[in-house]
């Protein structure tokens, strides 16, 4: 195999980048899997939690967009944090993303597996062995698609997102038509009011709400494979895609949370657990049309598995290209122009974690531990990007309200919020979750040390 260091440049446009950003967060998956958790935590204030965390995540988006002006890079936060604060901090920004992506292979493939079994073998949904085996099959299929090339991946993503959007739109219309006049929860301004939150309630809701939005930054990890702006001041396709993806996601999550609350009672949401969309569809549509909600969850989940494999493989490739990880991971396939070695690595690690997690007592416990540990790692690497942006562009504070807010203040406040959430979460986690969340980051010292050793020995 060739070891060329170039990805397929200019392969993606703004539209494809937007689709990648939306699919990266897996809208239907996020709603289906995490709604019960956030409603159990803060009730109807879930709507406000989603809205305000969207504003916080928009601050991180601004940081990524402005930092991308330094240089487009396949490991966005790693390169930019390293440029501003030094290679060690940059390494851990990239490592945080790698670890989160690995754990996500468990939290994403399991819902795809359970939704598949709901249709094919309903009696096997709570059987961890069946769920694990089905999840492994999905992971393998998606890995093959991603390895074949970025264009194949983008085409598949467009089809999946279009089908998912059609189903979700049907749920939204059906919900307002049938339950708009007699909702399970009467809409109120209290849902959005910042004065409805205590600091504890806000932090508790944010722990889950942050996870809703994670994944949009895959567009920035594909920036080396997207088209650049015609003029130097013009945003590249990756930045445009990330911006429009975030706008769409904030609106989507708010609307869907309202739909959940007007259709389902608190008891129904709790019983639905990780199948909230299916519970909504059961109240809106007769069989077999209610299974469309299950299909939307499968499509959304498969889409986000694809984007996370893309994000991990591009990150590992670029860090290996810079010799922060072993150079073998920078190997590019001569025909498909994809980092096939790094792609195989996340497939293998995902398979190992899936079958290891099958020894946990239930599917629900597997999901809870992986999702919470991912939330910690999201806060870690995204906050570093926010701080890097604020520091790098601190001179913008003297260039008017817009520049000061966009380049410095909003990213800085978003980063501080991420740190607060991460610190708040530690005492609320059990031992396994803390081991995954914090331990996953600390393991990064091993490859960092080995990289320095290789550099000293000239290997």
Descriptive notes:
The protein is mainly α and 459 residues long. The chain has one domain: Amino acid/polyamine transporter I, CATH 1.20.1740.10. Helices cover 73% and strands 0% of the residues. The chain is built from 18 helices and no strands. The chain has helices at 14-25, 27-42, 46-67, 76-85, 87-120, 128-147, 150-179, 199-213, 218-221, 237-263, 266-272, 276-284, 291-321, 340-357, 363-392, 401-425, 431-442, 445-457. Helix 15 (363-392) packs antiparallel against helix 16 (401-425). It is a multi-pass membrane protein.
Globally, the shape reads: globular
- Number of E-type strands: 0
Distance between the termini: 20 Å
CATH-derived architecture = Up-down Bundle
Oligomerization status of the protein chains: single chain
How many DSSP H or I helices? 18
The CATH fourth-level homologous superfamily: Amino acid/polyamine transporter I
What's the short story on this structure?
By secondary structure, the chain is an all-alpha fold.
Summarize the helices and strands and which ones pair or pack.
Elements (H helix, E strand, L loop, with lengths): L13 H12 L1 H16 L3 H22 L8 H10 L1 H34 L7 H20 L2 H30 L19 H15 L4 H4 L15 H27 L2 H7 L3 H9 L6 H31 L18 H18 L5 H30 L8 H25 L5 H12 L2 H13 L2
Helix pairs in contact: 1-7, 1-10, 1-13, 2-8, 2-11, 2-13, 3-8, 3-10, 3-15, 3-16, 4-5, 4-15, 5-6, 5-13, 5-14, 5-15, 6-13, 6-14, 7-10, 7-12, 7-13, 8-15, 8-16, 12-13, 13-14, 15-16, 15-17
């Amino acid at each position: 195999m060739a070891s060329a260091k170039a990805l397929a440049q200019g392969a993606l446009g703004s539209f494809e980048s937007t689709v990648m950003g939306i699919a990266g967060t897996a809208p239907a998956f996020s709603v289906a899997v995490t709604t019960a958790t956030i409603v159990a935590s803060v009730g109807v204030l879930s709507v406000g939690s989603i809205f305000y965390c969207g504003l916080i995540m928009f601050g991180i988006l601004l940081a990524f967009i402005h930092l991308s002006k330094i240089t487009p890079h396949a490991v966005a936060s790693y390169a930019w944090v390293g440029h501003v604060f030094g290679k060690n901090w940059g390494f851990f920004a990239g490592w945080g993303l790698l670890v989160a992506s690995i754990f996500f292979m468990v939290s994403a493939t399991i819902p795809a597996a359970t939704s598949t079994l709901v249709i094919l073998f309903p009696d096997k949904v709570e059987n961890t062995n069946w769920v694990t085996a089905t999840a492994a099959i999905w992971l393998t299929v998606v890995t093959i698609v991603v390895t074949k090339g970025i264009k194949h991946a983008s085409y598949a993503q467009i089809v999946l997102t279009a089908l998912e959007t059609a189903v979700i739109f049907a749920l939204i219309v059906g919900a307002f038509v049938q339950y708009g006049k007699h909702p399970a929860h009467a809409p109120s301004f209290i849902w959005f009011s910042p004065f409805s939150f205590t600091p504890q309630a806000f932090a508790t809701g944010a722990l889950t709400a942050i996870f809703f939005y994670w994944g949009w930054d895959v567009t920035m990890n594909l920036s080396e494979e997207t088209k650049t702006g015609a003029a130097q001041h013009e945003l590249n396709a990756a930045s445009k895609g990330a911006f429009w993806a975030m706008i769409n996601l904030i609106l989507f999550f708010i609307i869907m949370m309202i739909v959940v609350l007007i259709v389902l009672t608190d008891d129904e949401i709790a019983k639905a657990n990780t199948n909230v969309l299916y519970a909504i569809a059961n109240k809106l549509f007769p069989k077999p049309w209610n299974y469309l909600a299950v299909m939307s969850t499968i499509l959304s989940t498969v889409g986000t598995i694809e984007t996370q494999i893309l994000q991990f493989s591009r990150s590992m490739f670029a860090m290996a290209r810079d010799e922060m990880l072993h150079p073998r991971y920078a190997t590019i396939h001569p025909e498909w122009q994809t980092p096939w070695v790094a792609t195989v690595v996340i497939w293998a690690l995902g398979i190992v974690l899936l079958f290891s997690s099958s020894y946990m007592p239930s599917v629900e416990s597997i999901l809870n531990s992986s999702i919470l540990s991912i939330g910690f790692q999201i806060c870690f690497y995204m906050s570093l990007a926010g701080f890097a942006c604020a520091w790098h562009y601190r001179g913008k504070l003297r260039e008017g309200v817009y520049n000061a807010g966009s380049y410095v203040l909003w990213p800085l406040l978003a980063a501080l919020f991420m740190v607060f959430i991460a610190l708040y979460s530690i005492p609320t986690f059990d031992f396994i979750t803390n081991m995954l969340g914090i331990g996953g980051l600390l393991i990064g010292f091993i490859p960092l040390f080995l990289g320095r050793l290789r550099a000293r020995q000239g290997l």
